[in-house]
Amino acid sequence: xxxxxxxxxxxxxxxxxxxxxxxxxxxxxxxxxxxxxxxxxxxxxxxxxxxxxxxxxxxxxxxxxxxxxxxxxxxxxxxxxxxxxxxxxxxxxxxxxxxxxxxxxxxxxxxxxxxxxxxxxxxxxxxxxxxxxxxxxxxxxxxxxxxxxxxxxxxxxxxxxxxxxxxxxxxxxxxxxxxxxxxxxxxxxxxxxxxxxxxxxxxxxxxxxxxxxxxxxxxxxxxxxxxxxxxxxxxxxxxxxxxxxxxxxxxxxxxxxxxxxxxxxxxxxxxxxxxxxxxxxxxxxxxxxxxxxxxxxxxxxxxxxxxxxxxxxxxxxxxxxxxxxxxxxxxxxxxxxxxxxxxxxxxxxxxxxxxxxxxxxxxxxxxxxxxxxxxxxxxxxxxxxxxxxxxxxxxxxxxxxxxxxxxxxxxxxxxxxxxxxxxxxxxxxxxxxxxxxxxxxxxxxxxxxxxxxxxxxxxxxxxxxxxxxxxxxxxxxxxxxxxxxxxxxxxxxxxxxxxxxxxxxxxxxxxxxxxxxxxxxxxxxxxxxxxxxxxxxxxxxxxxxxxxxxxxxxxxxxxxxxxxxxxxxxxxxxxxxxxxxxxxxxxxxxxxxxxxxxxxxxxxxxxxxxxxxxxxxxxxxxxxxxxxxxxxxxxxxxxxxxxxxxxxxxxxxxxxxxxxxxxxxxxxxxxxxxxxxxxxxxxxxxxxxxxxxxxxxxxxxxxxxxxxxxxxxxxxxxxxxxxxxxxxxxxxxxxxxxxxxxxxxxxxxxxxxxxxxxxxxxxxxxxxxxxxxxxxxxxxxxxxxxxxxxxxxxxxxxxxxxxxxx
Length: 806
Known about the structure:
30 helices, phosphoric diester hydrolase activity, EC 2.7.7.59, EC 3.1.4.-, NT_sf, Bifunctional uridylyltransferase/uridylyl-removing enzyme
């Protein structure tokens, strides 16, 4: 046994010493064990100690005493700092003797600070507890004899399992409810930044749930998946999750189930997976494999439950036709009796389309049969196969579960081999909620609800499916994706003109949102830039506009909103005018009433309803001076008005600045109050920095300002005019950020010509066109960049790791 090299001399302290030696490794005599070998060595070590201790205490074959392990030791999955779960069984033994043995067994472990979950019971008591307590039952289903009277242990193991099988019908609903409550608490491992490997959906508890259903003889231990599926199937997923959790214990130096972001790189390196993104991808693959198996297992188990009472008299469910060769049976989509998968390559898509449209899951048996027997579709695809694919993609949110099932059983990869590069690929942007492949399917689901907006819904759905297909490969994902889309379009049998359009959708899927949020829409060159990029194709413009909305909705909370919608709508409207033959739009003239107020001098503030339900337009007319933008934005922030964009103009010696704002809560303040506060700010009687800091502390409940999750980024773009540059800042939001940024810009002597401010959830993408004058070299830009970075949230500094032994 691997643990024999560290055989404890007798006491539990020696057990701890031996465990620590196993964990340290890295020495010539004791090399560092990999995760699987470490678990086995720990199992051997604990068993060795318990066997020796049992012999010392007289726990022998005919003693009427036995030690049974449950939990990690029972499953032979002992992790470095897992609890030791033991049951001391006794039969016809004097209570004083049992108490003495228990004390001499438990106290050394407690004294050595080993986490111990223990109980002392007869077989009858243990079986009764298992019949009444679900958690205890699930634990004792994994029971394993360690030392003593093996017949006693077998009575317990057999009795608990018989009780479990005979009582599963009455306990099944509780079992499912318990699992769902756990998923609700811990979330899904595949889509959590810091997943819970034990309790999260797709984690180790779910694998134990499948084992429990298999013991109840309601399903097998690997429902719906064989070893040939992507990722290697359920057994491979189990081993990978255990390996990650083992290294998590080793890195943390204590029991832990949740992978923290700061430990992910070290864990990935220890397992030779790569960095934290590679680790996240591995965990996503494992969790989604487990999650699919649990769905199949629970469904199979529910159908296999023994019938009682009147339910036994009900007729077997009939088969309801859904499509050619596809029927519904017992709440699942299955193959018709006369279906011939070997001769019907399009059957896979018809089955999936029927599932997506009806919301019924595909039978695991059907998917396995299709995986074994269905031939490859010839290229180009037959027209009916393409139609079935479009039916699948247009089925709304049903497409997500249908494609997930196809992907986990290896069928989706046959239809779309390029999918492998994006499968389980984690996002690199904090605004993205999903893995790349799930994001693509979310986009398809949203696009299907918007398909009536376009003349070619088929190209919209295909564009949604493929718009990020270039990720996970070297190069710009839009350009790489366009090439892949060309090959895929030809394979699907699209017309050459449609192939070109599909490639253009993928190539330019970011064109409209990037332009609308980062450039001046009133500039004629902006519109000309978009029209030229699209070769003047109005149909492509329409498709990209709708795809941009679906893509934003599928990215995450707060990415799509009234303001972004109005920006895109304004840009598309201007482009359509040009495409219709109208002259390039020029910057809108300033309202004559505002011009008159500017000539009259003084400070004026107007507030009017905006383009959306919760949007308002605030116009500020005031004497032009450095710092005016900062002061105006600061006053708006003090009154809980979130600035979404700013348009700057001038007339004579007065500035005319327009802000689109959204109240954080309630109704906006009276414009007269805003005017009074602005006058005070301009005069220097309103300490904006201090007031904004106070407002931020109040909003955070007197807690310190939170650290950013992502590092801020500053990008520079040249313009055609000497001395003028476009600065783009991507950072996390904070109260009064625009005021602070404008003050920093003014403090560096730069003039803001126009600004485009976009808030996406908790992040901002702020674009400023700056006039730096003659001194616009690298040193000036570096100073300006540093000034901006000083006022935006920064990630928390990484704490130094303690030295070994401290």
